[in-house]
Amino acid sequence: MTVGDGHEAPDALRVTLLGTGRPKPQPGRTGPAAMVEAAGKYFVFDCGRCTLQRLEEAGVPMGELRYLFLTHLHSDHIVGIPDFWLTPWIFGRGNEPLRVWGPAGTRRMMSKLAEAFEFDIHLRRDVDERLDPGGVEVIAEDIEQGLVHEEDGLRITVFDVDHAPIKPAFGYRIDYKGRSAVLSGDTRYSDNLIEFSRGVDLLVHEVAAAPPAELQRSERLAHVIGHHTSPEEAASVFSQVKPKVAAFTHVVSYGIERGEIVERTKAGYSGKLVMGEDLMRFEITDEVTVVPPHC
Ligand SMILES: [Zn+2]
Fold it and tell me: Which of 76, 160, 186, 278 is catalytic?
């Protein structure tokens, strides 16, 4: 792992953490989302609060936002969709449709969103701005474990993770020119994730922790935390996968300092570990370069 710019490698696979936060709003960390860039194309994974805002801050042209992959349909991962779908239609998508892949229920959700926003769509398409009708179209697909998209040497594979009772819930693996990244989505410790992450360069994984006293006091909190991966479990996942770099995102920490989460993980894992931040970027070439936000 090196720290630097690294933006010069044309064959790099780039991963940008757009939002690394928890469901509750917090300063500096927005809702779950990540962007993968390769071969001049942009692929967005999950669409939490402020995703489009972060994409703008990352310098992505709005007209290029045409691919969205969802890990699961929990609200904190999808509340940014109307903005991500409709605003680039106004500012550059032209007549290209938005393509959305996600678990069972994705197609239905997107068709209901079209109903919810029919007033605005009708006005901008048919009455006022007369925007291109093709740019507001959505091609949505309910997917299952396997290869879901292949384009210009980039392969996107979806796999099941364990976020029960939220089923299905997915992680994604992205391969491009021998470089690779895995995004865990929301999951407990998952053997299937470990299987699909073999040999990966970058593993972006969720993590959750709460003080034991809080967990004893609140059954509901204990239940929620139980859907996720503890720092100690993450250490076990990372030790088995052995990525070049592991990075935390979707950091659910009820009163636990992020530094403590890292320390607890490092107690069981000696590889490179990064606490993810919004707009942190990873340039994957023969090595993984971590580019801090605002560089
Ligand atoms: Zn979730």
Answer: 76
Ligand 1 centroid – CA 74 distance (Å): 5
Q: How far is the CA of 75 from the centre of ligand 1 (A)?
A: 8
Question: 96-107, pLDDT tens digit by residue?
Answer: 999 999 999 999
Contact (Cβ atoms closer than 8 angstroms) between residue 278 and residue 19: yes
Task: Indicate the angle between helix axes 231-241 and 258-266, nearest 10 degrees.
Answer: 50
**Could you give the CA distance from residue 150 to residue 213 in angstroms, rounded to a whole number?**
47
Q: Please confirm, yes or no, whether 191 is among the known catalytic residues.
A: no
For residue 219, the CA-to-ligand 1 centroid distance in Å is 18
Residues 160-184 have pLDDT tens digits of 999 999 999 999 999 999 999 999 9
Domains, the chain, ranges and CATH?
2-291 (3.60.15.10)
CA distance 24 to 30: 9
Distance CA 143, CA 145 (A): 7
Asked if residue 94 has pLDDT above 80, the reply is: yes
Q: Which residue has the tokens 């969802």?
A: 70
